[in-house]
Amino acid sequence: MKNKYAILSMDVEDWYHLYYFLDKADKSYSMLDGFTSYIDLLNKHNVKTTFFVLSELADIAKDQILYAVSCGHEIACHGKTHIRPLDLSLEEFEAQITEAKAKLEDMIGKEIIGYRAPCYAIDDERYKIVQKVGFKYGSSKMDVPGHPLYGKLDLSEFKQPVKGIYTKEGMTEFALNTQKFCGKHIAISGGGWIRLLPWNTLMKPLIKKYLKDAESYILYIHPFELSKKMMPKVPDTSLLTNVRARRDLGKMDGRIIELIRLLREAQFQFDTFADICYRIEAVK
Ligand SMILES: [Zn+2]
Q1: Distance 87 CA to ligand 1 centre (A)
Q2: Collapsed DSSP state (helix, strand, coil) of residue 152
Q3: Distance of CA 78 from the midpoint of ligand 1 (Å)
Q4: How far is the CA of 35 from the centre of ligand 1 (A)?
Q5: For the domain that residue 110 is a member of, what is the CATH number?
Q6: What confidence tens digit (pLDDT) does each residue in 49-88 have?
Q7: Considering the domain boundaries, does residue 284 fall inside one?
Q8: In the chain, how many domains are there?
Protein backbone atom coordinates (compact mmCIF):
# COMPACT_ATOMS: atom_id res chain seq x y z
CA MET A 1 0.00 0.00 0.00
CA LYS A 2 1.21 3.51 -0.82
CA ASN A 3 2.21 5.80 2.05
CA LYS A 4 -0.27 8.55 2.87
CA TYR A 5 1.07 11.74 4.44
CA ALA A 6 -0.53 14.28 6.76
CA ILE A 7 1.16 17.53 7.76
CA LEU A 8 -0.63 19.61 10.40
CA SER A 9 1.34 22.80 9.79
CA MET A 10 1.11 26.15 11.56
CA ASP A 11 1.95 29.60 10.18
CA VAL A 12 3.59 31.37 13.10
CA GLU A 13 2.32 34.94 12.91
CA ASP A 14 0.36 37.05 15.38
CA TRP A 15 -3.34 37.94 15.28
CA TYR A 16 -2.57 41.43 13.94
CA HIS A 17 -0.96 39.94 10.82
CA LEU A 18 -4.43 39.02 9.56
CA TYR A 19 -4.65 40.79 6.23
CA TYR A 20 -7.92 42.55 7.00
CA PHE A 21 -6.43 44.10 10.19
CA LEU A 22 -3.34 45.40 8.40
CA ASP A 23 -2.02 48.61 10.03
CA LYS A 24 -5.10 49.02 12.24
CA ALA A 25 -4.43 46.64 15.12
CA ASP A 26 -2.59 47.19 18.41
CA LYS A 27 0.68 45.31 17.93
CA SER A 28 1.61 45.46 21.61
CA TYR A 29 -1.01 42.76 22.28
CA SER A 30 0.08 39.23 21.38
CA MET A 31 -1.73 35.92 20.98
CA LEU A 32 1.43 33.90 20.33
CA ASP A 33 0.70 31.72 23.39
CA GLY A 34 -1.26 29.61 20.87
CA PHE A 35 2.09 28.57 19.34
CA THR A 36 3.09 26.83 22.60
CA SER A 37 -0.41 25.38 23.05
CA TYR A 38 -0.18 23.81 19.61
CA ILE A 39 3.28 22.31 20.23
CA ASP A 40 1.92 20.78 23.45
CA LEU A 41 -1.22 19.48 21.74
CA LEU A 42 0.81 17.82 18.97
CA ASN A 43 3.32 16.34 21.42
CA LYS A 44 0.47 14.86 23.45
CA HIS A 45 -0.86 13.15 20.32
CA ASN A 46 2.56 12.11 19.11
CA VAL A 47 2.40 14.18 15.92
CA LYS A 48 5.43 15.88 14.32
CA THR A 49 4.91 18.90 12.14
CA THR A 50 6.31 21.99 10.42
CA PHE A 51 6.06 25.59 11.66
CA PHE A 52 6.38 28.37 9.06
CA VAL A 53 7.75 31.29 11.06
CA LEU A 54 7.70 35.00 10.18
CA SER A 55 11.26 36.13 10.84
CA GLU A 56 10.16 39.51 12.23
CA LEU A 57 8.74 37.49 15.17
CA ALA A 58 11.78 35.26 15.59
CA ASP A 59 13.30 37.17 18.51
CA ILE A 60 9.99 37.48 20.36
CA ALA A 61 9.19 33.79 19.82
CA LYS A 62 12.75 32.50 20.26
CA ASP A 63 11.99 30.27 23.27
CA GLN A 64 8.99 28.75 21.51
CA ILE A 65 10.93 28.15 18.29
CA LEU A 66 13.72 26.40 20.19
CA TYR A 67 11.13 24.42 22.17
CA ALA A 68 9.52 23.24 18.89
CA VAL A 69 12.94 22.20 17.55
CA SER A 70 13.79 20.34 20.78
CA CYS A 71 10.53 18.37 20.38
CA GLY A 72 11.53 17.24 16.87
CA HIS A 73 9.34 19.63 14.86
CA GLU A 74 10.60 21.42 11.76
CA ILE A 75 11.05 25.19 11.46
CA ALA A 76 10.44 26.64 7.99
CA CYS A 77 10.05 30.19 6.70
CA HIS A 78 6.90 32.31 6.23
CA GLY A 79 8.92 35.34 5.04
CA LYS A 80 10.07 38.39 6.95
CA THR A 81 6.90 40.48 7.22
CA HIS A 82 3.37 39.40 6.37
CA ILE A 83 3.04 41.67 3.33
CA ARG A 84 1.71 39.65 0.40
CA PRO A 85 4.64 38.74 -1.89
CA LEU A 86 2.54 39.88 -4.87
CA ASP A 87 2.54 43.38 -3.31
CA LEU A 88 6.36 43.41 -3.18
CA SER A 89 8.66 44.01 -6.15
CA LEU A 90 10.76 41.01 -7.19
CA GLU A 91 13.84 42.67 -5.66
CA GLU A 92 12.09 43.41 -2.35
CA PHE A 93 10.74 39.87 -2.22
CA GLU A 94 14.16 38.33 -2.81
CA ALA A 95 15.78 40.55 -0.17
CA GLN A 96 13.09 39.75 2.41
CA ILE A 97 13.11 35.97 2.04
CA THR A 98 16.92 35.86 1.91
CA GLU A 99 17.09 37.82 5.18
CA ALA A 100 14.32 35.73 6.80
CA LYS A 101 15.98 32.42 5.89
CA ALA A 102 19.35 33.54 7.31
CA LYS A 103 17.78 34.88 10.52
CA LEU A 104 15.95 31.61 11.24
CA GLU A 105 19.00 29.51 10.34
CA ASP A 106 21.17 31.52 12.75
CA MET A 107 18.63 30.97 15.48
CA ILE A 108 18.21 27.20 15.16
CA GLY A 109 21.68 26.38 13.78
CA LYS A 110 20.24 24.35 10.93
CA GLU A 111 19.38 24.86 7.25
CA ILE A 112 15.83 26.06 6.57
CA ILE A 113 14.55 24.36 3.42
CA GLY A 114 10.83 25.23 3.35
CA TYR A 115 8.90 28.38 2.45
CA ARG A 116 5.21 29.31 2.50
CA ALA A 117 4.04 32.62 1.05
CA PRO A 118 1.91 34.88 3.28
CA CYS A 119 -1.71 34.73 2.03
CA TYR A 120 -0.59 32.12 -0.54
CA ALA A 121 0.16 35.14 -2.72
CA ILE A 122 2.78 33.58 -4.97
CA ASP A 123 3.28 33.51 -8.74
CA ASP A 124 5.70 31.76 -11.09
CA GLU A 125 8.27 34.59 -11.11
CA ARG A 126 8.45 34.72 -7.32
CA TYR A 127 8.52 30.93 -7.09
CA LYS A 128 11.73 30.94 -9.14
CA ILE A 129 13.20 33.34 -6.59
CA VAL A 130 12.19 30.99 -3.75
CA GLN A 131 14.28 28.30 -5.47
CA LYS A 132 17.12 30.70 -6.26
CA VAL A 133 17.65 31.67 -2.62
CA GLY A 134 17.99 28.01 -1.66
CA PHE A 135 14.62 26.72 -0.51
CA LYS A 136 13.95 23.10 -1.48
CA TYR A 137 10.22 22.99 -1.02
CA GLY A 138 7.21 25.26 -0.91
CA SER A 139 3.64 24.98 0.33
CA SER A 140 1.94 27.98 -1.24
CA LYS A 141 -0.20 26.47 -3.98
CA MET A 142 -3.83 27.15 -3.17
CA ASP A 143 -6.36 26.50 -5.88
CA VAL A 144 -9.34 28.73 -5.07
CA PRO A 145 -10.07 30.70 -8.28
CA GLY A 146 -11.25 34.26 -7.76
CA HIS A 147 -9.99 34.54 -4.16
CA PRO A 148 -8.94 38.15 -3.53
CA LEU A 149 -5.65 37.31 -1.72
CA TYR A 150 -4.27 34.07 -3.16
CA GLY A 151 -1.88 33.91 -6.12
CA LYS A 152 -1.52 31.51 -9.05
CA LEU A 153 1.18 28.91 -9.53
CA ASP A 154 1.59 26.79 -12.65
CA LEU A 155 2.74 23.27 -11.74
CA SER A 156 1.94 21.67 -15.11
CA GLU A 157 5.62 20.83 -15.72
CA PHE A 158 6.00 19.15 -12.32
CA LYS A 159 5.73 15.40 -11.68
CA GLN A 160 3.39 14.13 -9.00
CA PRO A 161 5.07 11.20 -7.18
CA VAL A 162 2.37 11.41 -4.51
CA LYS A 163 -1.08 12.88 -5.18
CA GLY A 164 -0.93 16.57 -4.14
CA ILE A 165 2.89 16.61 -3.91
CA TYR A 166 4.66 18.01 -6.97
CA THR A 167 8.38 17.78 -7.80
CA LYS A 168 10.64 19.30 -10.42
CA GLU A 169 14.44 19.63 -10.50
CA GLY A 170 15.05 19.42 -6.77
CA MET A 171 12.02 21.54 -5.82
CA THR A 172 8.90 20.10 -4.20
CA GLU A 173 5.55 21.84 -3.85
CA PHE A 174 2.95 20.67 -1.34
CA ALA A 175 -0.41 21.89 -2.64
CA LEU A 176 -3.10 22.86 -0.17
CA ASN A 177 -6.15 20.62 -0.50
CA THR A 178 -9.43 21.94 -1.84
CA GLN A 179 -12.78 20.32 -2.55
CA LYS A 180 -15.62 21.46 -4.79
CA PHE A 181 -18.92 22.09 -3.09
CA CYS A 182 -21.92 23.59 -4.92
CA GLY A 183 -19.59 24.67 -7.73
CA LYS A 184 -17.19 26.51 -5.38
CA HIS A 185 -13.69 25.55 -4.27
CA ILE A 186 -13.44 25.10 -0.51
CA ALA A 187 -10.04 24.85 1.17
CA ILE A 188 -10.38 21.86 3.48
CA SER A 189 -6.82 22.54 4.70
CA GLY A 190 -7.42 25.87 6.21
CA GLY A 191 -7.53 27.33 9.65
CA GLY A 192 -9.99 30.05 8.73
CA TRP A 193 -12.04 27.74 6.52
CA ILE A 194 -12.24 25.02 9.17
CA ARG A 195 -13.06 27.56 11.86
CA LEU A 196 -15.64 29.63 9.98
CA LEU A 197 -17.62 27.05 8.01
CA PRO A 198 -19.89 24.56 9.83
CA TRP A 199 -17.72 21.72 11.13
CA ASN A 200 -20.12 18.81 11.65
CA THR A 201 -22.36 19.38 8.66
CA LEU A 202 -19.89 20.64 6.04
CA MET A 203 -16.17 20.53 6.75
CA LYS A 204 -15.91 17.14 8.49
CA PRO A 205 -17.91 15.32 5.76
CA LEU A 206 -15.88 17.08 3.02
CA ILE A 207 -12.57 16.09 4.66
CA LYS A 208 -13.74 12.49 5.15
CA LYS A 209 -14.75 12.29 1.49
CA TYR A 210 -11.42 13.78 0.39
CA LEU A 211 -9.39 11.33 2.53
CA LYS A 212 -10.96 8.29 0.84
CA ASP A 213 -8.65 8.46 -2.16
CA ALA A 214 -6.11 11.09 -1.11
CA GLU A 215 -2.40 10.52 -0.58
CA SER A 216 -1.61 13.78 1.22
CA TYR A 217 -3.46 16.09 3.58
CA ILE A 218 -2.23 19.46 4.81
CA LEU A 219 -3.65 21.55 7.63
CA TYR A 220 -2.61 25.15 8.21
CA ILE A 221 -3.59 27.06 11.31
CA HIS A 222 -2.35 30.07 13.26
CA PRO A 223 -1.40 30.72 16.90
CA PHE A 224 -4.35 33.08 17.49
CA GLU A 225 -6.72 30.23 16.69
CA LEU A 226 -5.39 28.26 19.67
CA SER A 227 -4.67 31.17 22.01
CA LYS A 228 -6.32 31.24 25.43
CA LYS A 229 -6.52 35.04 25.18
CA MET A 230 -9.38 37.14 23.83
CA MET A 231 -8.99 38.73 20.44
CA PRO A 232 -9.24 42.53 20.85
CA LYS A 233 -11.70 44.62 18.87
CA VAL A 234 -10.03 46.51 16.07
CA PRO A 235 -11.15 50.08 15.36
CA ASP A 236 -12.12 51.11 11.82
CA THR A 237 -12.99 47.57 10.77
CA SER A 238 -16.46 46.33 10.02
CA LEU A 239 -18.55 44.31 12.44
CA LEU A 240 -18.42 41.43 9.95
CA THR A 241 -14.61 41.44 9.95
CA ASN A 242 -14.47 41.50 13.74
CA VAL A 243 -16.97 38.63 13.98
CA ARG A 244 -15.11 36.68 11.30
CA ALA A 245 -11.81 36.97 13.18
CA ARG A 246 -13.36 35.70 16.43
CA ARG A 247 -15.88 33.04 15.39
CA ASP A 248 -15.40 29.61 16.97
CA LEU A 249 -11.95 30.47 18.32
CA GLY A 250 -12.43 28.25 21.39
CA LYS A 251 -13.36 25.22 19.29
CA MET A 252 -10.17 24.63 17.32
CA ASP A 253 -8.44 22.28 19.81
CA GLY A 254 -11.38 19.88 19.62
CA ARG A 255 -11.53 20.03 15.83
CA ILE A 256 -7.80 19.32 15.49
CA ILE A 257 -8.04 16.33 17.84
CA GLU A 258 -10.95 15.02 15.78
CA LEU A 259 -8.97 15.60 12.59
CA ILE A 260 -6.00 13.64 13.98
CA ARG A 261 -8.39 10.75 14.72
CA LEU A 262 -9.92 10.89 11.20
CA LEU A 263 -6.45 10.89 9.62
CA ARG A 264 -5.26 7.97 11.75
CA GLU A 265 -8.39 5.98 10.88
CA ALA A 266 -7.69 6.63 7.18
CA GLN A 267 -4.08 5.41 7.76
CA PHE A 268 -2.26 8.67 7.17
CA GLN A 269 1.15 9.09 8.79
CA PHE A 270 2.07 12.42 10.37
CA ASP A 271 5.34 14.01 9.37
CA THR A 272 7.19 17.23 8.68
CA PHE A 273 7.42 18.55 5.11
CA ALA A 274 11.21 18.15 5.18
CA ASP A 275 11.03 14.49 6.19
CA ILE A 276 8.53 13.78 3.42
CA CYS A 277 10.87 15.43 0.87
CA TYR A 278 13.64 13.07 1.97
CA ARG A 279 11.26 10.10 2.07
CA ILE A 280 10.07 10.57 -1.50
CA GLU A 281 13.66 11.37 -2.46
CA ALA A 282 12.83 14.80 -3.78
CA VAL A 283 15.84 16.06 -1.79
CA LYS A 284 18.97 13.93 -1.79
ZN1 LIG B 1 0.33 33.86 7.14
Answers
A1: 14
A2: coil
A3: 7
A4: 13
A5: 3.20.20.370
A6: 999 999 999 999 999 999 999 999 999 999 999 999 999 9
A7: no
A8: 1
